[in-house]
Amino acid sequence: MSDYRIKGETGEWEVVIGLEVHAQITATASKLFSGAATAFGAEPNTQVSLIDAAMPGMLPVPNRECIRQAVRTGMALEAQINRWSRFDRKNYFYADLPQGYQISQLYHPLVGEGQIEVLPDEQDESSAKTIGIERIHVEQDAGKLMHDQHATMSYVDLNRAGVALMEIVSRPDMRSPAEAGAYVRKLRAILRYVGSCDGNMEEGSMRADVNVSVRKPGEEFGTRTETKNVNSVRFVMAVIEHEAKRQVEVLESGGEVVQETRLYDPDKNVTRTLRSKEDAHDYRYFPDPDLLPLELDDAFLEECRASLPELPDAKRKRFEGLGITPYNAGVLTADVDIAHWFDGLLDTGAEPKAAANWTASEFFGALNRLDKSIGDSPVSPAQAGELLKLVGDGTLSGSLAKQVFEIMLETGKSAGEVVEERGLKQTSDTGEIDARIDEILAANADKVAEYKGGKLPLFGFFVGQVMKAMAGKANPQVVNERLRAKLG
Fold it and tell me: Distance between CA atoms of 119 and 129, rounded to whole angstroms?
């Protein structure tokens, strides 16, 4: 149970959250009912077919790949796949909707109930919570109005009209901004693993409608508002926080929450009224007469299931089974590109726990410092595997490995090349180590006497001096052994 509460003048209030996530099917380069392109950033109205523009006599034809990707997504969410589904017309007038209706699925969606397990607190395994999925339906997107192109008129760009969307509707199971944030992050990760959507919220290929209501704990659900088209995890959480507090203030001042659609202004961090909330009957839904129902056969469903990759939860469990800590396993599986990179590192034979620790600290730290993503990392999994192998076999100490890694980042060279060129091998030559130890002990006779007199923490000082004298190239284990022998 979430302990998130809004503290009002009349006591504590609980927030109830449901999300409708619109995910663009980016696995195919064409639209839901036409062959027009869907590339982001194209010049306005350059990706519009006669079907998208609603020219008379144009008939829609379902894109098989869009249906396949929606089914695969449903399977990844452990959802019911409906073998029989149907498209409906949602009728409304708006300038960016050439047909005067949107083809969607209301009564018989492609995908039914499913679920996602989220971890609101990544450090606390006990915070895990299952969020229900109510349905996934496939629909076409509308176009876009452009208000900044002319002083007195708005222009219409139909590039987005007809683009395939999956609307993923959650149950009202979330009770805090943290749970909603974890849900969106996990859903985005699953979509990216499956490959059905790139999850790019900045480009609008994934956006959320945020439904929020408040109630006194244990009471009936309150009246909800819907904040449209929120395009980042941070903004989803901010909308919930603001909207819940606003509703509490309205109720405690004797007012009523109005069921309505709102917009979020990220600059002012407020939501504002867009329009009163419509119900299904306002749209006069009816079955689309131009489209036959979708009927899925066993072979199609089996192919969809067989094509699914190892998903985040399964990958995380596999990593934990290799001795990797739950936290590191979570970090390494949160993004599909990171997971694939790390799997590549494991394929080199790297010891899993050491590899995970190094990746989560040294490697991610370097990427952050260089402002690079995993996709443009200057170090490949194979190069990282070679570096860790040199640490494992004693060729490099921890400090030398850091030096070598920095040079690899700068030059793109392999660890072996750097070690050979710079002479950075760790030495276990006891003769050379003994000679340096003798020099250090002779130069610090007073500290030797103190150590032998019981000041044992001075041992670390001697180790440090020897390592410094050997420019960090001495094997620390050998240094420790030889020092203990000589100090008695």
Answer: 6
